[in-house]
Specification:
Distance between the termini: 29 Å
Strand content: under 5%
Structural class: mainly alpha
Order of helices and strands: HH
Low-confidence stretches: none
Number of strands: 0
Helix content: 40-55%
Radius of gyration: 16 Å
Largest sheet: none
Shape: flat
Length: 56
């Protein structure tokens, strides 16, 4: 955030979250991640996070 405060980069360049996966995502024949699996993975991460917040 120090670069944003100094005005060197815009705030919208900074991601809200970074999700690191230990599992390999399935890929197409051109080595790109299959989008439907990527979408499921991201939804699962957000749902798990929401569950933790509301279960406290």
């Amino acid at each position: 955030m120090q670069f944003v405060e100094r005005g060197e980069i815009p705030k919208w360049w900074i991601p809200d979250k970074v999700i690191i996966s230990e599992k390999e995502l399935p890929k197409t024949s051109t080595a790109k991640p299959i989008r439907r699996y990527l979408g499921r993975f991201i939804r699962t991460c957000y749902l798990n996070e929401l569950y933790k917040v509301f279960s406290e």
